[in-house]
Amino acid sequence: MHFDSGESAFAWALDVPPAARTLGKRFWPGPLTLILKRSALAQDFITGGQDNVGVRVPAHAVAHQLLSAFGGGIAAPSANRFGHVSPTTAAHVRADLGSDVELVLDGGSSEVGIESTIVDLSRGAPVVLRPGKISAAELEAALGTPLAERGEDMPRHSGGLERHYAPRTPGKLVPVHELDREIARLGDKVAVLAFSRPDERVDYWLRMPRDPLSYAHRLYAALRELDSAGCEAILIEAPPESPEWAAVSDRLRRACG
To answer: Which of 79, 109, 114 is nearest to 248 (CA)?
Structure first.
């Protein structure tokens, strides 16, 4: 559920723990979704029958104006076919949904590029369910306490499937030392997403930024471009194994299924 203020968002929760108010005050408006025990306002058709609800206050000016004009919460999933690469422009939405939607409100390209950080506060200690631009380190600094580890009984949430955000062309995440071997094996049937300069053996190669925020901003548009290249596979050079790359790594693992 999306709202124009934290006060409106928390009205949809049965209980608002202090940690939720702390995170809302620090990161809203912004790319943070909080999972809370739902109030009676959040009916089954919104929550899929779960006893919790995800609430968020977006920072985008157009989204904020829409929410203010509407005067209430808006239940909004991602504007793409289930499991497919997320849209980051209005053109992506039209390409996915076509005439199935009557109106696309164009607010320009996505500033962040990947989905919000999801933090579950419905079961006690805060737990990150989906990494995003707001990192675990930033969350812990705001809370003054470590985050809890994920358990087996986490609530269903967006981006929780093993295969998600996925192009139709099969993708493979490969370490940098294996990239050359995979290119030699697949030849001109492959498209490549990598940090390094293009290889002359590959017809379709996209070079990505080496900082995680710029990479995240460009990621979905790049996957869509490679998906349209007419290749049999997409090779993706694995990013560094560091906390700063957690959100990008999560999306790439799921995109490759």
So the answer is: 114
Mean pLDDT within 72-101? 91
How far apart CA 86 and CA 168 sit, in angstroms, is 12
CA distance 6 to 56: 8
Query: Global pTM?
Result: 0.90
Q: Would you say the C-alpha torsion 36, 149, 111, 78 has a positive or negative sign?
A: negative
Q: Smallest Cα–Cα separation from 147: which of 116, 131, 132, 125?
A: 125
> What count of other Cβ atoms lies within 10 Å of the Cβ of residue 24?
22
CB 198 within 8 A of CB 180: no
Burial tier of 79 (Cβ tally within 10 Å: 0-12, 13-18, 19+): middle
Cα–Cα distance for residue pair 12/72, rounded to 1 Å = 11
